[in-house]
Amino acid sequence: MLIKILLTYIYKKSKTIFAFFVNYVSVFIFYPDNFSQMILIN
């Protein structure tokens, strides 16, 4: 849940595809268990 909030915050702040992509990859690397949830969110 915290990751989802963080993702939303960073995405709204950056509003750039590159920043969102970097954040997305970071989630995949550091939180592989939640990666499936990230796919469902986006």
Largest sheet: none
Give the H and E element order.
Answer: HHH
> What percentage of the residues does DSSP assign to strands (E)?
under 5%
- Please compute the radius of gyration using only Cα atoms: 9 Å
Distance between the termini: 14 Å
Low-confidence stretches: none
Number of domains: 1
| Oligomer designation | single chain
Mean pLDDT across the residues is 71
Category by helix and strand content: mainly alpha
Count of β-strands? 0
Tally of contiguous helical segments: 3
Shape: flat
Helix content: over 70%
Keywords: Membrane, Transmembrane, Transmembrane helix
Description:
The chain has 42 residues and is an all-alpha fold. Helices cover 81% and strands 0% of the residues. The chain contains 3 helices and no strands. Helix 1 packs antiparallel against helix 2 (17-30).
Looking at this protein, list some descriptive labels.
mainly alpha; 42 residues; single chain
Question: Topology of this structure?
Answer:
Elements: H1 2-14, H2 17-30, H3 35-41
Produce a short descriptive summary:
The chain crosses the membrane at residues 16-32. The protein has 42 residues and is mainly α. The protein has helices at 2-14, 17-30, 35-41.
